[in-house]
Amino acid sequence: MRTIPALLVTVGLVASLTACASGTPSARGCDAPTPGAASDAVSATGSLGSRPKADVPSPLTTDRTQVSVLKQGTGRVLGDGSPAVIEYSVYDGATGKSVQTSGYTGSSAPVTVGSKNAGALGEALECARVGDRLAIVLTKQALQSGAATSKKQQDAAVIIADVVDGFPARATGRPLVGPDDMPAVVLAPNGAPGITVPSTAAPTHDSTHLLRKGSGRELTAKDTAVVKYTAVNWGANSSVAGSSWTDGSGAVTVPLAKGGQVATSITSALTGTHVGDQVLAIVNQQGTTYAYVFDVLGTMPR
Question: Which one, of 61, 35, 36, lies nearest residue 152 by Cα?
């Protein structure tokens, strides 16, 4: 797991991601990479979420990302912006040998479909269902740089990815009317919030305000929340301090346990919320007041 940029660590939020519209999208509306001869040649056995016994014939080459479904899931369909929790094994297509795994410990950070940081892997997960086991074949260049196609055949990298969980792309709760003296929040079509702070002086105390009321389970200090966020500083020259919607990361994870790396002001704002909530949090830290909007998308498996 990685931490998010230092700017947001300054205000106490720690997030993680892999190295590399509301509700559930329709599979018919997805634009997924198609299978090919290389991905169809890969097979794997074993239970979902456990390291598979794989057969990766070699050498394998490809000029594009290919995706074959080895085991069909029945859960949520993942569309653009949906965070997915995957367990994976990576193989060298030139030799067929395993070169890396997620560890299969249940602690892999989510990959956001279509996000810049997820690159070709994020594109390969488009239209996948929770419960799928996928054979993803892509060029080694694509694995490193994110380019999904090539002008010529190249040595392939093979990823066997188990989609063990997935979340909505945005908060799905019922909209509520926000307080008059707090920042105004307007949503873009994809759900990304725009935040406008009042011209009044910034509050000196922390507070939280529910903008959307979700119907999912309540988060506790034992949870690691999966959220998207935007934060702005409150002042005459207010500007965006950070946003997972635009920085390429997509969804991030926030451990809510007390005494961890995340500031108490952040964990307090999220503890007690429900999956599906959208929360406006006013946070004071190091002499600056920040207005956060959190979309609470789900929790990581315990």
Answer: 61
